Amino acid sequence: MEDSRGELCRNRRVIGTVERVRVDAQGKIVKEAKAASEPEALVAFFRSLGFAVKRIGLEAGPLSQWLHAGLKRAGFEVVLLETRHVKAALSAMTVKTDRKDARGIAQLIRMGWFRPVHAKSIGSQEVRALLVARKQLPKAAAMSPLDPSRKSALIRRRKV
Predict the structure, then answer these.
(1) Comparing 6-15, 31-40, 61-70, which segment has the lowest mean pLDDT?
(2) How is the chain classified by DSSP, letter by letter?
(3) Mean pLDDT of the chain
(4) Which structural domain range is residue 148 located in?
(5) What is the dihedral sign for C-alpha 88, 89, 94, 96?
(6) Structural domain tally of the chain?
(7) Pair (85, 28) in one structural domain
(8) 70 exposed, middle or buried (CB, 10 Å; 0-12, 13-18, 19+)?
């Protein structure tokens, strides 16, 4: 039988720390905490709770792919949430803080009112990074002071 407290967990990333809110199946907040925004720290936290975590929700963002991959490797069910959908759902809040966002998103996950985002594999992220770097190479080469086409302009400036 599953522990009723093993329902949901929600992460809200802040630079350096993560706001975590844990709610049960009825929506009652069971635990709130902050920790380093690193997969190892989050895995340690979730394992130290003493009960099963059914689902972890992460708002899509710069760190979310990394956190998602680390939590998945540790065996947790992780969902990435679309940021525009989350923003629209939480727009009624008058005062926006990371703690309140974490509470609101935990409730969205509990009720199933979220739109999941596909998490790209590490391999596809690496390929994308290589393609972006390759696209930027001609621009970087054109800006280089060693570019032969710019050499005459540099010589002319020195003579003046």
Answers:
(1) 6-15
(2) ---TT-SEEEEEEETTEEEEEEE-TTS-EEEEEEEESSHHHHHHHHHHTSS----EEEE-STTHHHHHHHHHHTT--EEEE-HHHHHHHTTT-SS--HHHHHHHHHHHHHHT---EEPPPPHHHHHHHHHHHHHHHHHHHHHH-TT-HHHHHHHHHHHH-
(3) 76
(4) 122-159
(5) negative
(6) 2
(7) yes
(8) middle
Q: What is the mean pLDDT of residues 129-155?
A: 71
The verdict on residue 3 lying in a domain is no
Structure tokens at 111: 């009720």
Does residue 74 sit in the same domain as residue 127? no
Flag whether 86 is in a domain. Answer: yes
Q: What is the pTM of this model?
A: 0.64
Residue with tokens 């003579």: 159
Same domain for 14 and 59?
yes
CA distance 144 to 138: 10
Quote the CA–CA distance of 32 and 14 in Å, as a whole number: 15
**Over the stretch 67-112, which tens digit does the pLDDT of each residue have?**
889 999 999 988 888 888 788 888 887 777 777 788 888 888 888 8
